[in-house]
Specification:
Length: about 150
């Protein structure tokens, strides 16, 4: 039994829309990956920690950042633009797709020092109104004269 297995359990509450909870419970049941909701949440937490440990902040990286967001959320579009303007050296290209009246898909091609690329992704994905986002990144092991 590892140190994490013998740790005391901490209880906390999470507020989610009821339909999301029902869909997640159905996913858990379909996959059979966990016996209960708590174990499924622990699995998500562990996966996020593993993903974070794979970051290479001191290396040159290339990658893509994909976001889906509701452009009607407050001043989200302005905040997305402001942040992106702070990272023009890391953003190689962007693609913007209008999915429907409210939702947009934005894909950013990125390259640069890992710490800057991760900071950009964290800042964008942390904005209220960004519904989904994913950074896919790889260290190049070389200079970025691509």
């Amino acid at each position: 039994m590892g140190a994490a297995d013998s740790a005391e359990l901490a209880r906390f509450s999470v507020a989610v829309p009821e339909d999301l909870l029902h869909e997640y419970d159905a996913l858990i049941a379909r996959r059979g990956e966990a016996r209960n909701r708590s174990e499924a949440i622990r699995d998500l937490m562990r996966a996020a920690l593993v993903q974070d440990s794979l970051r290479t902040p001191d290396e040159q990286v290339i990658g893509s950042l994909t976001m889906i967001y509701d452009h009607h959320t407050g001043d989200l579009t302005r905040r997305l633009d402001e942040i992106q303007h702070d990272f023009t050296a890391e953003i190689v290209s962007t693609m913007h797709v209008h999915l429907d009246h409210h939702n947009c898909l934005e894909i950013l091609a990125l390259k640069g020092l890992g710490s800057r690329v991760y900071e950009l992704a964290d800042r964008l994905l942390g904005l209220r109104g960004v519904k989904h986002g994913e950074l896919t990144c790889a260290a190049t092991g070389a200079s970025l004269d691509i």
